[in-house]
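User: Before I run my own analysis I want an independent prediction to cross-check against. Here's the chain; please return only the structure tokens and, at the end, one sentence I can use as a sanity check.
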Amino acid sequence: MSKVAKKVAKEKIILGLDPGTNIMGYGVILNQGGALTVLQFGVIQMGKSGDHALKLKKIFERVLGLVDEFKPDEVALEAPFFGKNVQSMLKLGRAQGVAMSAALFREVPITEYAPKKVKQSVTGNGNASKEQVAKMLMQIFNIKEMPKLLDASDALAVAVCHHYQQGTVKLKSKGWGDFLKANPGRIK
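Assistant: Structure tokens:
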């Protein structure tokens, strides 16, 4: 295999999604040999009023657009959390299902992650706040300004979680001291 072929083989684009019926976050990262770069992150706003079916159509179209634009190798989604409001959970599940369908329509593999797993992967604390997750991502990617809508950073966190879960970062240490010695560029 040539050097160019090896380099291309090590690149992977991951699209992370934080499904929602009013606001859906998305984050796209590029993994080049273990080094992560943010390609884009933001939100898709559906508005608070309007027909639920039309919102689902918009989610499908926008996710399909992201898949067509960035050609991700994999899509990672945050799984719905269990809440007290059954109607909200049902709507959220539909939004997630439509987002999954858009990725699968283009034959892109999908993986789901529980919200606690995402937070744990990014911050080390499964009970971290959205703000803590956003601040950690700002450090990891050297982002200067926190996003106005944290759905965007939540989706970016889902993509980062997926990257970590794929075994692309291997910790051969027994603690933070060993980790910091092996990864001096990770902490600023």
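Sanity check: Strands lie at 11-18, 23-32, 35-45, 74-78, 110-113.
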